[in-house]
Write a structure and sequence with these properties.
By secondary structure, the protein is α/β, with parallel strands linked by helices. Helices cover 38% and strands 15% of the residues. It has 13 helices and 13 strands. A seven-stranded mixed sheet has the order 2-8-7-6-5-3-4, with helices on both faces. It has a four-stranded antiparallel sheet with strand order 9-10-13-12. A two-stranded parallel ribbon has the order 1-11. Strand 3, helix 4 and strand 4 form a beta-alpha-beta unit. Helix 1 runs antiparallel to helix 9, helix 2 runs parallel beside helix 9 and helix 3 packs parallel to helix 4. The longest helix has 22 residues. It catalyses: L-histidinol phosphate + 2-oxoglutarate = 3-(imidazol-4-yl)-2-oxopropyl phosphate + L-glutamate.
Length: 364
């Protein structure tokens, strides 16, 4: 029998490891999911009401530019709505940025433990991803700049970073940008910006407003609307124009647009969520940090816990699952085999996780 002829993916596509989301419990189980950095307080009641109201308009195409959502974002964040592009989650916008600015023979630079989507979207364009070693699980500006070559077209920077929770302060991000050629696009992924409590942090809007080669990307997924899939980007006019030329014409559905606009304006709910997160993030860090476990200081809505060996980390994960808590293993996705990422969840869950891990640590 002759060999079957069939369509073939572009070179390199089948070499890409697919993104692995956080695990969930088995259907019917009472396991508490702490693996995906979701909101422990649910969604804004105003966003829920807006989403429900959209059910009366399901036969109508959504407005193609997400105008109502962009206007709400501009109002609350002090940004010209014309400088905003909305997407089906921030992943949608990151994919579009890669598609527009990377191609065969190009390079994109990122820190070693940066968001695992960056290598996927870079390699999908035929470009190469250059991973740069970090300094104690934090992006190293000097190392990132040293990795830049004539082929570099994009620098990906998650700030704060996933899965480590570490961040670069405003001065360091500005120093990184100052060291880049003007034809290199700096993508500041501020997915966890709402949760930052550090006084020296900047979401990146100052750089976007002052330069032609910086964009900032944000998401609603960590703020209670993960199911709605809403992301947004702020950039200079020429970047916004390029992205709008290739994005899907109705890439944000109407319920998501309305829920996103309502959530944006519900600043009281956002503040309550951030206050809750700061309290329990700091509490969990203090409870777990010991000689047996090292908790990397986090500015996000999760903490990364390091164990002495990958074997101990795997045993800790198994112990947590048996106790009903599903956290994120980060060996396969991020190469941190001795670590676990734990989302900040409800109060009872945080107390339960601390109790289980402290008992586990004492048994090692």
């Amino acid at each position: 029998m002759s060999e079957t002829v069939r369509p073939t993916p572009q070179p390199g596509i089948l070499d890409i490891a697919p993104y692995m989301p956080g695990k969930s419990g088995k259907p019917g189980s009472n396991a508490i999911k702490l693996s995906a950095n979701e909101s422990p307080l649910g969604a804004s009641p105003k966003a829920i009401a807006a989403f429900a109201a959209a059910a009366e308009k399901l036969e109508i195409y959504p407005e193609g530019t997400s105008r109502l959502l962009r206007e709400a974002l501009g109002e609350v964040h002090g940004v010209n709505p014309d400088s905003i592009v909305c997407g089906n989650g921030s992943d949608d916008l990151l994919h579009l940025l890669a598609q527009v600015y990377l191609g065969e023979g190009d390079e994109a630079v990122m820190n070693r433990y940066g968001f695992s989507v960056y290598p996927i979207i870079t390699r999908a364009t035929g470009a190469q991803i250059i991973m740069v070693d970090e300094r104690d699980y934090c992006a190293d500006v000097d190392a990132l700049l040293a990795a830049v070559t004539p082929r570099t077209k994009v620098v990906w920077l998650a700030n704060p970073n996933n899965p480590t929770g570490t961040y670069l302060n405003a001065d360091e991000v500005a120093r990184l940008h100052a060291g880049l050629r003007p034809d290199i696009l700096l993508v500041i992924d501020s997915a966890y910006a709402e949760y930052v409590t550090a006084a020296d942090y900047s979401v990146g809007l100052d750089l976007v407003g002052a330069h032609q080669n910086v964009v900032m990307v944000r998401t609603f997924s960590k703020m209670g609307l993960a199911a709605a899939r809403i992301g947004w980007m702020v950039g200079p006019d020429h970047v916004v124009d390029a992205i709008n030329r290739i994005r899907g014409p109705f890439n944000v559905n109407l319920p998501a647009q309305l829920a996103g606009a309502a959530a944006t304006r519900d600043v009281a709910f956002t503040q309550a969520l951030c206050d809750f997160n700061a309290r329990w993030r700091d509490w969990l860090t203090a409870e777990l940090h010991s000689n047996a476990m090292r908790v990397i200081p986090s500015q996000a809505n999760f903490v990364m816990v390091l164990f002495d060996t990958p074997e101990i980390a795997a045993a800790a994960f198994k112990t947590l699952v048996e106790a009903g808590y599903i956290v994120r293993e980060i060996g396969a996705s991020y190469g941190i085999a001795n670590g676990l990422r734990i989302s900040i969840g409800p109060e009872a869950a945080m107390q339960g996780v601390a109790k289980v891990l402290k008992a586990f640590g004492g048994a090692q």
